[in-house]
């Protein structure tokens, strides 16, 4: 399967990396933690990339901007659930050390992507 335009975007690739890492972590949690914090965290993280893809797929600048804003909201929700998971001792320091750089890179990339929509057609760099 060939890569679509959105799949070439660094911001999308980061969202996939974050979502997949979170999935791998949550899969190891006990049932109660998975059913409460885990499901919310996975859904929020998965929503970041899904909204980027949907926005780009809509093919108009206003739709793309709208969905990237939703993706940004999902990133903030993901950060909330990561904070809850850490506070509840569901995340180790090592896991936080792995996730934090991805979140720290993704947030400004989302903003840059949002600001670029309509000005330039981004390829692989935001």
Key structural traits:
4 helices, single chain, mainly alpha, 0% strand, 126 residues, de novo design (two linked rop proteins)
Description:
With 126 residues, the protein is an all-alpha fold. The chain has one domain: 23S rRNA-intervening sequence (de novo design (two linked rop proteins), Up-down Bundle). It contains 4 helices and no strands. The longest helix is centred in the middle third of the chain and has 28 residues. The chain is elongated, with a radius of gyration of 15 Å. The C terminus is likely disordered.
Sequence-ordered SSE layout with sheet pairings:
Elements lengths: L9 H17 L4 H28 L2 H27 L5 H24 L10
In short:
By secondary structure, the chain is mainly alpha-helical.
- For the secondary structure, the number of strands is 0
> Do you know the CATH architecture?
Up-down Bundle
In the CATH hierarchy, what is the superfamily? 23S rRNA-intervening sequence
Give me the secondary-structure category.
mainly alpha
Order of helices and strands: HHHH
Major sheet size, sense and barrel closure: none
Mean pLDDT, all residues: 93
Task: Tally the structural domains.
Answer: 1
Helix segment count?
Answer: 4
Q: What helical percentage do the residues reach? A: over 70%
CATH top level assignment: Mainly Alpha
Q: Could you list the spans in which at least 5 consecutive residues all have pLDDT below 50?
A: 122-126
What is the CATH third-level topology name?
Answer: de novo design (two linked rop proteins)
Q: What is the general shape?
A: elongated
Oligomer status: single chain
Rg to the nearest angstrom? 15 Å
What is the rounded distance between the termini? 23 Å
What fraction strand?
under 5%
């Amino acid at each position: 399967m060939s890569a679509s335009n959105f799949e070439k975007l660094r911001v999308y690739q980061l969202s996939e990396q974050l979502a997949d890492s979170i999935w791998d972590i949550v899969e190891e949690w006990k049932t109660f933690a998975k059913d409460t914090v885990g499901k919310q965290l996975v859904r929020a993280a998965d929503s970041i990339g899904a909204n980027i893809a949907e926005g780009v797929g809509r093919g108009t600048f206003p739709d793309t901007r709208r969905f990237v804003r939703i993706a940004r909201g999902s990133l903030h929700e993901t950060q909330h659930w990561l904070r809850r998971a850490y506070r509840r001792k569901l995340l180790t320091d090592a896991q936080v050390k792995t996730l934090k750089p991805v979140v720290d890179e993704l947030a400004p990339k989302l903003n840059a992507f949002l600001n670029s929509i309509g000005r330039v057609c981004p390829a692989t760099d935001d």
